[in-house]
Amino acid sequence: MSVETNAEIQPQVGTQSMKPAVKKRVFSGIQPTGNIHLGNYLGAIRNWVETQDQYDNIFCIVDLHAITLPIDPKELHANVRKLAALYLACGLDLKSCKLFVQSQVHQHAELDWILNCFTPMGWLNRMTQFKTKAGSEMDTVGAGLYCYPVLMACDILLYQTHYVPVGDDQRQHVELTRDLAQRFNNIYNKSIFTLPEAQIRDAGARIMSLEDPTKKMSKSDPNPSAYITLLDDPKMIKKKIARATTDSERVVAFDPARPGITNLLSIYQILTGQSQQEIEADFEGKGYGDFKAALTDRLVETLSPIQQRYNEIINDMAALENLLKQGADDVRPIAERTVQKVKKAVGLG
Ligand code: ATP
Ligand code: MG
Hints:
Blueprint: E1 9-11, E2 20-22, E3 25-30, H1 38-51, E4 56-61, H2 63-66, H3 73-89, E5 97-101, H4 107-116, H5 121-125, H6 128-134, H7 143-158, E6 163-165, H8 171-187, E7 197-199, H9 234-243, H10 259-272, H11 276-282, H12 288-314, H13 317-346
Parallel strand pairs: 3-4, 4-5, 6-7
Antiparallel strand pairs: 1-2
Helix pairs in contact: 3-12, 4-7, 4-13, 7-8, 9-12, 10-12
The structure holds adenosine-5'-triphosphate (ATP) and magnesium ion (MG).
Catalytic activity: tRNA(Trp) + L-tryptophan + ATP = L-tryptophyl-tRNA(Trp) + AMP + diphosphate + H(+)
EC number: 6.1.1.2
Subunit structure: Homodimer.
């Protein structure tokens, strides 16, 4: 890993010499493609919030990624603001994090072109998300969907990132980012890009669809019953959990052969912090109905305060626009430093 050059210098409290400690940089983002769901929260945002004090954090709303599939312009514009408000409502603190919109920092697109030229086609051919998302439209989807992992690599590498906290579905993309950084450093100069690592927790890394528990929960799922959004009201949460796919066994237990109930139990486990044994003991002799009612209560308890804060934040749009502009102004010089290093190495400009 290359030497840290850009993280803020923080005084180290409690040491006699007050030696400055350098915080490692964290970068992550979410696409403003639809309704932010429980998977995005448990797999990503919640982890960002929990560790924000330990790191020098940059969080992005990756709107350039959102146009890799067709999206209505008005919806995209509104989604960006909604997502920013949700980041803050979930607990991101601007004292510890920089928060910005990807398309407001043109260096993402600039580095993207350069890095595309250094990405072997064979590496992109191995990316499973493209195959899942393109489905039967392989020949008609835009090339941007195919090149999506390169843009994601640029997002991460522009900020000389050490850690990328994401869900399990992004593991392959972060590995590609690391490989691209290494390849570029080897060709030109070993210290151009910091080599990033994915930070993927065991709990919540892959929340599954409520309709088809063999598929991950996704914003782009055409069926809203497949996910719980962070803005679903208690009635909606109750309805979606009640109809969530389980099985005919009726024993409330973690069992890989029963992915539906296991997914719901995993969500319950994260929300309550209980062990698997404790949960199974609590529901011994009870049915899926009792368990689903308890899960609904925990979800409402978790999401209600987020929704309350969200409503306050989204109602002051001027303040929200301002803080996003400030975020972009803050990160742009960091991104520009990397672009300059890259252009110089390649011989551009
Ligand atoms: P889309 O369907 O538009 O790709 P998405 O739900 O996959 O939407 P992304 O914006 O691609 O969401 O991902 C945002 C973050 O949420 C990433 O860190 C990703 O790994 C994480 N994430 C997405 N879905 C899940 C899930 N089901 N479980 C855990 N983490 C998830
Ligand atoms: Mg996704």
